[in-house]
Amino acid sequence: MELIKDRLAQSLREAAEAAVKSGALPELGVLEIVIERPQNAGHGDFATNMAMRLARSARMAPLEIAKRLVAHMPKSAAIEAASVALPGFINITLSKPWLQEQVNLINGLGESFATVAKGNGERVQVEFVSANPTGPVHVGHGRGAVLGDALASVLQAAGYTVQREYYINDAGNQMQNFYKSLYARTAQAFGMDVKMPDDGYMGRYMVDLAEEIIAEAKDKKALEQQVREKPEEAQKELGAGGLKKMLAQIREDCEALGVRFDEWFSEASLFAKGQYAKVLDALRDSGYLAQREGATWFTSTSLGEDKDNVIIRSNGTPTYFATDIAYHYNKFAERGFDRVIDLWGADHQGHVPRMKAAVSALGIDPARLSILTSQLVTLKRGGEVVRISKRTGDIITLREVVDEVGKDAVRFFLLSRSADSQMDFDLEAAKTQSQENPVYYVQYAHARIAGILRLGAEKGIDYSKGDVALLKDEAELALIRKMLELPELIEKMAALMEPHHLAHYAQDLATAFHWFYKQCRVVSSEPGDEAITAARLKIVASAKVALAATLHLMGMTAPEKM
């Protein structure tokens, strides 16, 4: 959908050209036109400070520039008035006929109304969650899942071609610890006196996993014999089977949250396909590797970092950073993504600058890589903190939370704060069936809208030819204005990579609808009200489109009944 801001910017550009041509303004050079919504509704629908930006080059007072621009603005059906305010703002008010006509436009477009053509099909990969497959995903991973999935949806709505990816950390020390832990738990289940490794995974889930593997074994005696007599072979086979089961569980848990990935990319494949070695050779040939203290270092300092980083330990094993460099080379050079967005946990914040440096060392513009970090989530129940400890076995899994409060509630609450803000998630508050619960409040608005439309249908009212010119009440116009913010918001969220604005907008849109419903009787049986009823059913239908589109971008359901 074309943004009204873009149309207004074009009108101002034409005004500037006309003013220069008439001699009212000197040559202005490159125009930088920023149009925003003023905080004070009394200042109109939109405002721009372009006159103040032009003051220096034009050598003229901003207020005078603004006046001359307004005087040369072309006539537009969308603009009711353009006025000037100190110290040089241009305030623009949209016309009522144009606003009213947007109801027809929204209904005609359906949910494609909530799209903007900004990405031009550019290929963007969003990699998120990527939790080690050594244990169940918890609510912190869930936050990354919701933010990443919603961001991917927003980017798609903004015209980008998006791939959702999960990076499987199936190589390195953590997998060895997982294999050893699973072997120990399996051996213990067979009555053997085998201790868990000091850095093993102590959670109850490892016991359950071992018992599940034993229960599913076609020949339990053969398995026990292998565990007792060939521990190394057993550890390898048990680990491979356990990894497969953990990944299946992670996939199932993500899908329970409504998150589905296009690609599950294996870290181990980087070694198997030679890409890890290829990247090391490239860095070595470019002079970015150095040998010190028996280890191989990436010379990050030559790229502006404050310290170098080990990528191969003195024992010959690669660090996590080394495989991450190879993984990002694969994303850009091998698979050809135009942009890559990584969403990492807060504990990886310090990893961001060196990752950017590594990408640069590979000859890739680091501006093509965006790395977002999501802060911690504190689970509460009625105000009391619920502790989470993956290693000690006291686990509150993401699946438990989803099963308790529901997918939609989890998604809404985890999307209600920016990624860089720590947040509390109260399980009891999320389950409340009242107007105080924002999830209930927003979904109830959609269900109410659906109910109104059903009532109209039951009464045989055909609103398709309803006259939108009858929509003159301030509550009606306010609802239209709020609906029109959605495409603008999509553009903003895609640019800033901030999908959390959806949760706030959803509440604002629901509030605008509830106010409209309170102020304006929709379905009336009074003689002579047929026309206004049809018009109001039409705006209700457009509100349904906007609210459903918002909920779907958030990955939530838009209920017809509640």
Please give the CATH architecture of the domain at 100-119 and 434-553: Orthogonal Bundle
- Provide the CATH top-level class of the domain at 100-119 and 434-553: Mainly Alpha
Tally the beta strands: 15
CATH fold title of the domain at 100-119 and 434-553 = Isoleucyl-tRNA Synthetase, Domain 1
| Oligomer class | single chain
Mean pLDDT: 95
Count the DSSP helices.
20
Instruction: Report the principal-axis shape.
Output: flat
Low-confidence stretches: 389-393
CATH superfamily of the domain at 100-119 and 434-553: Isoleucyl-tRNA Synthetase, Domain 1
Distance between the termini: 31 Å
Helix share of residues? 40-55%
Indicate the proportion of strand residues.
Answer: 5-15%
Task: Outline the structure in words.
The protein is 51% helix and 13% strand. Strands 7-6-5-11-12 form a 5-stranded parallel beta sheet, with helices on both faces. The chain has a 4-stranded antiparallel beta sheet with strand order 1-2-4-3. Among the domains are: 4-94, Arginyl tRNA synthetase N-terminal domain (Gyrase A, domain 2); 100-119 and 434-553, Isoleucyl-tRNA Synthetase, Domain 1, CATH 1.10.730; 173-256, no CATH class. The protein has helices spanning 4-22, 50-58, 62-71, 96-109, 139-157, 173-189, 204-216, 220-229, 231-256, 268-272, 275-285, 320-334, 352-361, 398-405, 407-414, 427-431, 438-458, 474-496, 501-519, 530-553; strands at 35-36, 46-48, 79-85, 89-94, 123-127, 161-168, 263-266, 289-292, 295-298, 309-312, 339-345, 369-374, 377-381, 384-385, 423-426. Strand 3 (79-85) and strand 4 (89-94) form a beta hairpin. The protein has 562 residues and is an alpha/beta fold. Helix 2 crosses helix 3 (62-71), helix 4 crosses helix 20 (530-553) and helix 17 (438-458) packs antiparallel against helix 20. It contains 20 helices and 15 strands.
